[in-house]
Amino acid sequence: MYTELETLPSIDEPSISVSQPEPQELRKLRAIHWWYLLFFVSGFPALLYQIVWQRALFAIYGVNIQSVTIVVTAFMLGLGFGSLAGGTLSKKRNFPLLPIFGMVEIGTGLFGLASLKIFHWAALFSAGVPPLETSMMAFALVIVPTMLMGSTLPLLVAHTVRANSNVGTSVSFLYAVNTLGSAAACFCAAMFLMWKLGESGTVELAAVLNLLVGASVLVCYWRTQERYDDIESDWSSSVGPTKMNEERLAFPVALILVVVSGFIALAYEIFWYRLFSYVSGGWSKAFAYLLGAYLAGIGVGSFFSERFCERRRTSRQFLAFVAYFVLAANAVGFLVAPALATIVRHASFLWVLPLVGIAAAFLGVPFPLLSHASIPPDSQSGARLGYLYMSNIIGSALGSYLIGFVLMDYLSTTQIAMVLAFAGVTLGAAILFAAGLQEKQRAYGLAAVAVCFLLISAASPKLFYQLYEKLLFKHFYQPALAFRYSTETRSGIVNVLQNDTVWGNGMYDGGINTGLVRDDNYVIRAYAVAAFHPNPEKVLMIGLGSGSWAQVIANFPSLQKMTIVEINPGYLPLIAKDPRVRSLLTNPRVDIEIDDGRRWLLRHPNAQFDVVVMNTSFNWRAHMANLLSADFLRMVRPHLKTGGQLYYNTTAEPRVFATGVRVYPYALRVANFLVVSDSPIVLDKERWRQVLANFAIDGIPLFSPQDPARDAHLNQVVHLCDVFGEDFHVFALERGDTLRARTAHARTITDDNMGTEWDPAIHGTELFQ
Fold first, then answer.
1. Which of 343, 521, 323 is nearest to 425 (CA)?
2. Can you name the residues that pair with 647 across neighbouring β-strands?
3. φ, ψ for residue 121 (rounded to 5)?
4. pLDDT at 226 over 60
5. Other Cβ atoms within 10 Å of 757 Cβ, number
6. pTM of the full predicted structure?
7. Which residues of 110-232 form beta strands (DSSP E)?
8. Parallel, antiparallel, or unpaired for β 507-511 and 501-504?
9. What is the distance between the alpha carbons of residues 669 and 682, in angstroms, rounded to a whole number?
10. In the chain, pLDDT over 90 holds for what percent of residues?
11. What is the 8-class DSSP label of residue 638?
12. What is the pLDDT of residue 321?
C-alpha cells in the first residue's frame, strides 16, 4: 500500500503537510490569490462551451443514446489528454507557468469564436456517418479546445505548489473555484443566457470571457514578473530530498482509488439525471439545474477538504477521511430518489437539489485528499496531478458508459440504485482496510459499513415502491394508480396507465386507440392524411409512441412502404402486448428503425416520401427544437417527392406555426397539427369519405356495415373538412394565409435560438404540479 521507503507512522505522526508560512513568505502567497478569481471565471465559459458544443454536435449526429455517449466521451477524453499535457509542461524547471495558462485561455477563446462555424462546416461532410466515423469526427472536433481546458488545472496546481508547498490546499482551492464557476454557468444558462443569447451568443460570451482571463493573466504576470521569478527561483532551490522522502500513499493506489471514486460520482449524476428528466417531463432546464447543484456540491466539498490538507496528518488519516466521505456520499446519494418521490407530492422537484448538492459535496472531497496524500510538493506535482485527473476522468467516463449505456438496458431503477450504493459502500470498506487503522477504529468503520449494507438491503423495497408512479402523478398519486406495464431502457422509460394512455419519459405520449367512434386520443388527425394527400404511397413517420398513428397509416389502401424511425426501443414490447396495434410489428409494408430522426434523414440523403409524419411532443421539451426548427424543416424538403407534404404536431405553439409557414409557401392547420408543402394543399372531402368508408385494420372495418349509425358517424367525420376556425382544441382547419398573418409577431425557431426550450415563461415548478 505504501512505497518501499515508507514506514507506517502512528496515527499522530506528522508527515504530509508542511509548516505554516513564515511572515516573509506572505508576499508569495498574496501573489496567488488573484488567479483563484481568474480560475473561477475560467470555469464559467468552460461549462457554457460544453452545453452549446454538445448540443450542436447532437444536432449533427443525433440525440440517440449512441451519439450522446460518443459525444460526451469525446469531451471527457479531450479533458483527460489535456490534463496529461498540462502536467508534462509543468515539470519543466524555471518554466513560467502563468503565461502558459494565459495563452491557453486565449487559445480556447479564439477556438470558441470559430467553433460553431467549424462544426457546421464539418456537418457537411460527416453528418449521418456510421458510429465509428462519428466517434472519430466528434473527437477530432473537440480535441483541441478540450485539451486546452483540461491542461489548466495541472498548470495552476504546479504553480501554486511552487508558492505554498502544499499540494492538497492547491488542488482543493483551485478545483473548488473552477467547479463553482462552472456551477454558476449552469444556473445562468438555465435562467437567462440560453434564452437571451442562443447558441451563438452564448459561445461568443464564453469566448470573450476566455480572452479576458487570458489577457488579464498575461498583463498581471508582466507587471509583477519579478515576484513570480522569485517564486520560481525559491522553488528550484528548495526542492530537496526531504520533501521527496516524506511518507505518502503509493501513487498507483491513489490512481485506482481516484478511478473508482470518479466512476461512482458520474454514475450517480447519470442516475439522478434520469430521475430529473422523468419527473420534469424532459424540461430542458431540469438538467442544467441538476448539473449546477451537482457541480456546486463538488466545489463546496473540494473547498471543505482544504481544511484537512492544511493540518499535519498521516496517510492513514487521509484514507480514513476518504472512506467516511465515500460512505456518507453513498448514503445521501441513495436517498435522493426516494426523497424526490416524496417531495414532488407536496412541492416542486427543485427542492431536492440541496440534497443532490450535499451528496455531491461528499463526492467532491476524495479527489483533493487523495492528491494531497499521494503527491509530494516537488517539481513533479503538476505531472502527477495530471495523471490523477486523467484517472478521475477515465473513471467518470466508465461510470457514465456502464450505467447509462449498459446497465439501464438490463436493470430497473431500484436495482441500479442498489448497485451504486453497494459499490460505494464496498469502496469505503476497501479504503478503511487499506488505511491500516488501529483495531478499535477499524471496528467502528466496519460497523458503519455493515449498517449501510443492512439498511440498503432492508429499506430499498419500501423506499422505491411505485417510484415512477409517484414521480409522474405527484400530489395526485395513490397506490391504486399503478401502471399497467412499463419498460425501462437506456433510451428512456415508457409507462402504460390503466386507461391505456402511454407516457414516455414522464410526459403524455398518446393513447392506444385506432377507432373513430370513441376517439379519446384524437386519432382522427392520422386519418386526415387521406383528406389532404391524394395518394400516400411512401410514408416516413418520425416517432412511434403508442403505435396507434402508425397502425392507422400503415393500413391506408394506397400505402406501399412505411418507414418508422423511433429513438426508444422501449415502445416495441408495449405495442406487442396490445392486440389493437400488435400487427404493426409484423406488417410487411412497415420497417421500424431505432435511430434519431434527424440523424436518419442525414444518413439517407436520397430517400423521398409522399408524406413525412411527426407526432412531435411538447415544443418546450429538451431537444424538441431539433425537429421544429427552420433548419430541420429545410432539411426535410429534399426528402419530399413532388407534391410531398410534412405533417407534424405543433402542440399549439404560435412560434412553431410561424416557423412552418415561413419555410414553406403552402400550409394548412389541422387542429394543432400543421401540413406544409412546396405544392398547393387541396382538401378532397369525397376522397376522404371513400377511404374511411372502406377502411379496415386487420380485416376489421372502421365503420361496421351492421352498425345502423354507420352513415351518421361517417358523415359526422367527413363534415369536419368544412370546419374552419382558430380553436386548437377541436378539429378545426385554418388556411396558410390566415395562419401566417395571425403568427406574424412570433419568433422563428432555429437551431441557434432553440425555440421555446429555454423560455423563462415555462416554469418546471408549475408545469408538473
1. 323
2. 613, 675
3. -65, -45
4. no
5. 24
6. 0.89
7. none
8. antiparallel
9. 12
10. 57
11. G
12. 83
Taking only the tens place, the pLDDT of each residue in 261-284 is 999 998 999 999 999 999 999 998
Distance from C-alpha of 604 to C-alpha of 150, rounded to nearest angstrom? 37
Using the 8-state DSSP alphabet, how is residue 748 labeled?
P
- What are the beta bridge partners of residue 492? 489
335-389 tens-digit pLDDT: 999 999 999 999 999 999 999 999 999 998 888 888 888 888 877 888 888 999 9
Q: Measured at the alpha carbon of residue 125, what is the angle toward residues 122 and 127, in degrees to the nearest 5?
A: 85
Which of 557, 753, 766 lies closest to 656, judged by CA? 753
- Shortest CA distance to 540 belongs to which of 586, 618, 588, 608? 608
pLDDT, tens digit (0-9, with 9 covering 90-100), for 726-763: 766 667 899 999 999 999 999 999 999 999 999 988 76
Residue 181 amino acid letter: G
CA distance linking residue 158 with residue 376, whole number of Å: 11
Q: Give the helix, strand, coil percentages of the chain, each rounded to 5.
A: 65, 10, 25
CA distance 222 to 224: 6
Cα 379 from Cα 161, distance rounded (Å) = 9
Whether the CB-CB separation of 137 and 184 falls below 8 Å is answered with no
Grid coordinates standing for 517?
A: 367512434
Torsion of CA 18, 19, 23, 27, to 10 degrees: 10
d(CA 572, CA 54): 29
Cell readout for 171 is: 488542488
Nearest in space to 514 (alpha carbons), one of 500, 504, 529, 524: 524
**Confidence band of 246 (pLDDT split at 50, 70, 90):** low
Rounded to whole angstroms, the Cα distance separating 507 from 492 reads: 11
User: Once rounded to an integer, what is the mean pLDDT over residues 148-162?
Assistant: 86
Q: Chain-centre distance of CA 300, in angstroms? A: 22
Nearest to 387 by CA among 255, 555, 542: 255
The DSSP H or E segment spanning 30 is: helix 26-61
